[in-house]
Design a protein that fits this description.
Largest sheet: none
Radius of gyration: 19 Å
Shape: globular
Low-confidence stretches: 68-72
Structural class: mainly alpha
Helix content: 55-70%
Order of helices and strands: HHHHHHHHHHHHHHHHH
């Protein structure tokens, strides 16, 4: 509608102004764009600062070195070219330098693309608050940029796999830590079905990464006794693996097994037997 398109125009004007702001260094501008792209695929109000801090460059770029990336994905090849030229260091400084993260957040707030998180409502350690429609506009605009989209999708996928880890021996502290990350994990899983992501990334390696995060979220929901939502997510994982992976890929069988176990937990044994 007119309101949405008008807002998108305002968002693009704000991005253009950010790109030419003489008071910002090149590194700060790059970090601000990367932060906005990051929030566009995570939770718009409950993304913890801690999730984005203290990552190593080698970990963030591990998937860019993967031979699973198909040559037909031109944007992925551009991202790998950046890697070869060491241009990715500035792009990923947001996640490796806490000071850079703080400066990027300040720049985003300055241009009205991000609002400060109110400590009494969201806690003192959230990145900020982004309007739902602004988030959508930024997702469409920034993920389409070859110097932003592939790097963000690779980096965030790796961050979530490293931080959102599930173990049967997890104690109360670990469950609290995981619950803080669930909004971001859920948002990440949800945006994988959007055209903004589909047009950038759908390589086999990325599908495997997404399925792993979704599977861990299913385990978390099971552990918290939320079998109904766990079943819905397990069904989605099964459908996604069948739709996006080669017919003989082992993750398809794994997803069917997990869905069967979820059916059994809900007492739907006939359906579980059919899958097995």
């Amino acid at each position: 509608d007119k309101h949405y398109f008008g807002l998108c125009l305002s968002v693009r004007i704000a991005l253009d102004r950010l790109d030419v702001d003489a008071e910002l260094s090149d590194a700060d501008r790059t970090a601000a764009r990367m932060l906005l792209a990051t929030i566009s695929v995570l939770d718009r109000t409950r993304t913890p600062m801690a999730l984005l801090e203290q990552h190593s460059l080698s970990t963030l770029t591990a998937d860019l070195n993967s031979n699973h990336i198909a040559e037909k994905w031109w944007w992925w090849n551009r991202a790998r070219t950046m890697l070869a030229r060491n241009e990715h260091q500035a792009a990923f400084a947001l996640f490796t330098d806490s000071g850079q993260l703080q400066r990027a957040r300040a720049a985003c707030v300055r241009y009205g693309l991000l609002q400060p998180a109110h400590p009494s409502q969201l806690g003192p350690n959230m990145v900020g608050v982004m309007h739902q429609l602004v988030q959508r506009c930024l997702r469409i605009t920034l993920l389409a940029r070859p110097d932003v989209g592939p790097l963000i999708l690779v980096g965030i996928g790796r961050i979530l796999r490293n931080r959102f880890t599930i173990s049967q021996t997890d104690g109360p502290y670990e469950w609290t830590r995981l619950s803080d990350l669930v909004p971001c994990v859920q948002s990440w899983c949800d945006v994988q079905h959007t055209d903004a992501v589909w047009n950038v990334v759908w390589t086999i390696r990325h599908v495997e990464s997404v399925l792993e995060v979704m599977f861990r979220l299913t385990l978390y929901l099971h552990g918290r006794g939320d079998a109904k939502h766990a079943m819905d997510l397990a069904t989605c994982v099964c459908e996604l693996s069948r739709a996006k992976l080669p017919p003989n890929h082992p993750d398809i069988a794994t997803s069917m097994k997990n869905l069967a176990e979820t059916y059994s937990a809900l007492g739907r044994h006939d359906e579980a037997l059919t899958l097995n």
